[in-house]
Amino acid sequence: NDKGQCPVDVVPEPLDMPLEMADAAAQAKELRTLLRDALPRPLTPRPLVPGQSLDLYSERARAHLANMGIHVGDKVVIAGQKVGTLRFCGSTEFAGGLWAGVELQQPEGKNDGSVAGVHYFTCRLKHGIFVPLSKISKFSERSRPIPRHPGAPLRPPRHIDLSRVKSKVDTGPLSRSCSTSTSSLDSRHGPVLRPPVPAPRQRRPLRPRQEVTPPSSRSTPPPSSQCGLPRSRTPSACSSVSDAPVLRLGERVLVIGQRTGVVRFYGKTRFAPGIWLGIELDKPSGKNDGSVGGVKYFSCPPKHGVFAPPSRVQR
């Protein structure tokens, strides 16, 4: 068209869509794939026609920013993770609702302030990102993301503490017996089950040694139970949930502070990255029957299923 756009350019990028639009994101992903294959980009795209400049923010966006205490040009934090400068706030052509255009400090973005040939603000390549307005907050030292240093030691070397403890706690054959049993337990079941709780052994020092022999592997709870969810038959249920809140399948929850339902799925999906909750709503105010993009994650009546990130769900 006169803006230099191909058909695939007017379909929103799934990763840029709001988290509440899981079904639409799956459809957008399929549609972009079809259009990209059927109508590839021309080798010499038409030059962009300079159009009317977009306002930085509308009256509606101005009111929302005023309530948040934020202005265009302020430093903001996106979902408590990425830091940048607010460059745009308002409606866009790629999706409905109010969106914030942020220039990131690091090249962790997806664009240069333009989406599908429409220019909203200017920044360096890979420094621009668009997120729903609800995802940003004003930057403060308290909200600064904590840098991760995988190689940095988190605590003093363990052998120093162990040498001190051993010289004081080793009181005789009983302590050596417990130590031997603990070593046997660790060698048979691996580091996942360590460390054993010492309190029960201290309360039962006179019990026979058989009391501390390791249980069978079948009686050991699976590691997935640590996240509060039983093993599920659904795809990717209870996967990579170490940073997610503890929820259980079948537990009643409140979705985005408005709708109530029961957790039916917890894990990764094919329609969007990250961890998602699949919830069967009490009323037919959902978007599906537990399936998205032809993939079945759980079963419920039509219009009773909805997917949401854990941050939008509470007990």
Automatic annotation (TrEMBL):
GO cellular component: cell cortex; microtubule plus-end; nucleus
One Pfam short name: CAP_GLY
Biased composition (Polar residues): 233-242
SUPFAM superfamilies: Cap-Gly domain
Compositional bias ranges of the Basic and acidic residues kind: 158-169
UniProt-listed GO biological process terms: cytoplasmic microtubule organization
Stretches with biased composition (Low complexity): 174-185
Protein name: CAP-Gly domain-containing linker protein 4 isoform X2
Residue intervals of the CAP-Gly domain: 90-132, 267-309
Residue ranges the record marks as coiled coil: none
InterPro entries: CAP-Gly_dom_sf, CAP-Gly_domain
Domain of life per record: Eukaryota
GO molecular function: microtubule plus-end binding
Location of the region described as Disordered in the Swiss-Prot/TrEMBL record: 140-242
